[in-house]
Amino acid sequence: xxxxxxxxxxxxxxxxxxxxxxxxxxxxxxxxxxxxxxxxxxxxxxxxxxxxxxxxxxxxxxxxxxxxxxxxxxxxxxxxxxxxxxxxxxxxxxxxxxxxxxxxxxxxxxxxxxxxxxxxxxxxxxxxxxxxxxxxxxxxxxxxxxxxxxxxxxxxxxxxxxxxxxxxxxxxxxxxxxxxxxxxxxxxxxxxxxxxxxxxxxxxxxxxxxxxxxxxxxxxxxxxxxxxxxxxxxxxxxxxxxxxxxxxxxxxxxxxxxxxxxxxxxxxxxxxxxxxxxxxxxxxxxxxxxxxxxxxxxxxxxxxxxxxxxxxxxxxxxxxxxxxxxxxxxxxxxxxxxxxxxxxxxxxxxxxxxxxxxxxxxxxxxxxxxxxxxxxxxxxxxxxxxxxxxxxxxxxxxxxxxxxxxxxxxxxxxxx
Length: 416
Prior knowledge:
cell inner membrane, ABC_transp_permease, 74% helix, 0% strand, mainly alpha, single chain, ABC transporter involved in vitamin B12 uptake, BtuC, 17 helices, transport
């Protein structure tokens, strides 16, 4: 019996050594996403999940949730929660509608001069920042828990959205405004036609190739840096396998998009935000302070971190990203609707936790939250294509969230 235990411990020990340096949590959700894609590729009628138009719709339809997830993961890492993002998105969508198309038509807003579409967007984001300042003030300087402040904000800004729109819809919007949510880079494939390539969008293929090269360069540069400073790195085999899978996945999605209308402007905006916020969280003092506050608030205070200021700017940032999400959904729907953004807060929070963030704070990544959001998007899209009822869809999504958090709790207990 003791020999069996020694053999098991030896096998487990060898496995642990082989997996040393591997982020099991982040890699598990990536493999879960690939598994879901493969499963629905086989099970959907006529392989509908693999069609170029379906992938194009999948990216555009989930863009506004993924934007919220970027801000939400920062909030959750710091140990807070924001329940108001859906209502703020609806309110800012209403504001953008008033600024862009309705001031001369709707009663009560005739005092406001008409503005170009880009001024409407800028104005809406500024108001989103003011909303974030309002909530950040109560959380950071008054000391009210973020759960209560944003719960109040969920009601407050939903009411303001109804008041702003006078319980009606606003639209349609100018083509340039709509392009943010529905437009594509070189949709007519002008560059491809110039080179005699009409079956694929050439700009989409070029962007995909550049994205793959940038990913590989970043991965190898990061690995070299960690080795240089004697930090732990992933096993060589897994490192190459993981990057090969990532490159294949990006190439697959890019190829599908190139066969449809091309790269959506929503995706371009999303990639830009992912890069910027990944740099902020990994390479700036502000990002390190967020992790420190969520990891151990008392230690963060003792180390001299201005916790109030960090929390305040976190909610300002969340307000701006909520505004951007509201603009995206308004542009996609070509209408500002009072009920827009309903349930967005739950989708954003679920994306963060499925993406590997810890319920206690201090753990999480921007890329993980994006993968978590895509898992939700692929899951919902696949179930719709398989004609799964909304009751079963909600049940399955609830179980996925529960198991994701349970895995986080279990993994933490294993490390203690």
